Amino acid sequence: MKSAGKSNPEKRNATSEDVAQLAGVSQATVSRVFAGGANVSEKKRKKILDAAAELEYKPNAQARSLITRKTMMVGIIMRNIKDPFYSAVLEIFHTRLSPLGYQLIFNNSENEIIEEWEIAKLLEFNVEGIIVTDALLSEGATRKLKRSGIVSILFNRHAEGLNCSAVYCDNYLAAQQIATYLVEMGHRSFAFISGPRNTSTTVDRLKGFQEVLRERNIKELTIIPGTYTYESGFKSAQELLTRNKKIDCIFCGSDIIALGVMDAARLVGFRIPEDLSVVGFDNIRMLGWTPYPLTTWEQPLEDMVTSTVELLLKEIDDKNAAPRIIAMKGRLVIRNTVRKKK
Amino acid sequence: MKSAGKSNPEKRNATSEDVAQLAGVSQATVSRVFAGGANVSEKKRKKILDAAAELEYKPNAQARSLITRKTMMVGIIMRNIKDPFYSAVLEIFHTRLSPLGYQLIFNNSENEIIEEWEIAKLLEFNVEGIIVTDALLSEGATRKLKRSGIVSILFNRHAEGLNCSAVYCDNYLAAQQIATYLVEMGHRSFAFISGPRNTSTTVDRLKGFQEVLRERNIKELTIIPGTYTYESGFKSAQELLTRNKKIDCIFCGSDIIALGVMDAARLVGFRIPEDLSVVGFDNIRMLGWTPYPLTTWEQPLEDMVTSTVELLLKEIDDKNAAPRIIAMKGRLVIRNTVRKKK
DNA sequence: ATCTATTTTGAATACGTATTCAAAATAGAT
DNA sequence: ATCTATTTTGAATACGTATTCAAAATAGAT
């Protein structure tokens, strides 16, 4: 049992009832002024607004949501907030949702697949939707959300038959275009230092990349899965390059991985791009930094967030809308880590 | 007016009333089971839990908070989420607050001083507390929060007479120790590339740093304020070093600034640490990366968050507790960007 | 001034829970 | 078996709002 604390006689916040009394109207009319929409005579409206200002009245969001069945809250579950790509994602989501009156409940998870227990609290708080970045929802979690009438959207992932909307960058197409570019620049011996092996992200990119190599009859592709971190990229590249000096070019699963790869390569003695080409993915802001002029694939971050929010709102409005999976294009950003081989 | 959407007959979530009916008890008893604390006979408790499981019942947080006057929500306002130091801060706050049942409402702000309008929504949502990182609250905002019974705590800032608790790293002490170390390493000509000029962070550090220089009768200190970004550090250093080749050592307001400084210095032709020493502040994870073996001041991040949360809980429990300002020590982390001058 | 159509208003109610208070049930002692 | 002390229970209520429904007020036409 919790102590109630030594708080004051608890001066409570003003309620619509208090405002009504001071303004000499009914609570219903006060509510009409603040809920908007309904007609209130100018005279009373002014009285009410004055009274509200004097009492510093603000509507109580919990009481309101009990009636309207709209909590105006959205949960966001992030797995990789330390990656600057995802810091940016969070910031943009806030920028988009805040003007719409939605509050963003932040959640962290270490898990590749979000299970039911991780969303239990969000369910109790009746968020209207959940955005999951860089992770999947378990089948159980998806079902539970569906039954509870809570919209869920995967950001930067997608999953077959999960009955859940998703917005992601078309990794298959991106990898194809990257591979084509690299082959045209004369490279023949590749490595793909990727994120976790079985995620859609990795699978799609590998598929696109391999397809191009196959068409051109290029056999040399070493695949090294890992995590989306500098350290993982560093370690993978270090091992790879001390073992196999013949690699022409490394395609990285993310920019952060690529930074680790570049540092490891230089340490082992490779010059970039003279001895080794490196390509990243995401186009994080750090690529403007001197040591890392990385050629990369830009994800259309702003547009991806915009689409996600649109989808979210639409499904909140119509819970029976069929899930949609939106693949967005990106573009190759050429900097200075891919050389042209003669 | 919003369309209600084409939603289903809206299958509503189960309520305690539904559970009570199925279990053959009163709503009050169901509530007792889920609110905890009160006595309920084992027989009924089991019946209720079974019924709840069958109906997938979960308490409604909004309805609950209306009664208990506890929303179990905390707002966090961040100004610099792109800085990896603050990404880490956010992650740790979530890690600490989540097990306590608190939800974290994320807010972004560009502003150095948070005004009333920026916290208005958090007030409507009746968060129990607000954590402000890397920014201040305006006097108006502070007063308003106080009157509304909402706890506020500054993280990594403090302000005289703002009547608001704060947890920060003792920047004065840190700067003194850094300065002492640098002087002992033989440096005599300094620059301080800082964050915004009038923040407590900058003021305290400058004071500590200058004090040591004065004691040793060292006059050369160029002060260049800016923002806590790579770009700001880069630009400041570039201008400084092309103009003034005699600088021995640059003390930076944050690691991110230091990274920009190092890259700019190298571009201008300085070797680090042979020609120029650089010291950072924060000890972000990136300093493990090859190009940036930065000597820096480590902020006791985990402990700072822990203290902030403790303070938060205590003040939530006792709204009349006097604000406390907690300064925490850190430690010098010596890597490889400060040379010993003969 | 009178009548009708329209707008504005307030009383009553519901949202889903926790808690109070008194009654009922149970446990424990003899 | 009876009586008392303790535990368990349910009915009633309150939290603060939005909305419904019917009544009151107003606007507009003649």
Automatic annotation (TrEMBL), chains A, B:
<keyword id="KW-0804">Transcription</keyword>
<dbReference type="Pfam" id="PF00356">
    <property type="entry name" value="LacI"/>
</dbReference>
<dbReference type="Pfam" id="PF13377">
    <property type="entry name" value="Peripla_BP_3"/>
</dbReference>
<dbReference type="GO" id="GO:0003677">
    <property type="term" value="F:DNA binding"/>
</dbReference>
<keyword id="KW-0805">Transcription regulation</keyword>
<feature type="domain" description="HTH lacI-type">
    <location>
        <begin position="14"/>
        <end position="68"/>
    </location>
</feature>
<dbReference type="InterPro" id="IPR000843">
    <property type="entry name" value="HTH_LacI"/>
</dbReference>
<dbReference type="InterPro" id="IPR028082">
    <property type="entry name" value="Peripla_BP_I"/>
</dbReference>
<dbReference type="InterPro" id="IPR046335">
    <property type="entry name" value="LacI/GalR-like_sensor"/>
</dbReference>
<keyword id="KW-0238">DNA-binding</keyword>
<feature type="region of interest" description="Disordered">
    <location>
        <begin position="1"/>
        <end position="24"/>
    </location>
</feature>
<dbReference type="InterPro" id="IPR010982">
    <property type="entry name" value="Lambda_DNA-bd_dom_sf"/>
</dbReference>
<protein>
    <submittedName>
        <fullName>LacI family DNA-binding transcriptional regulator</fullName>
    </submittedName>
</protein>
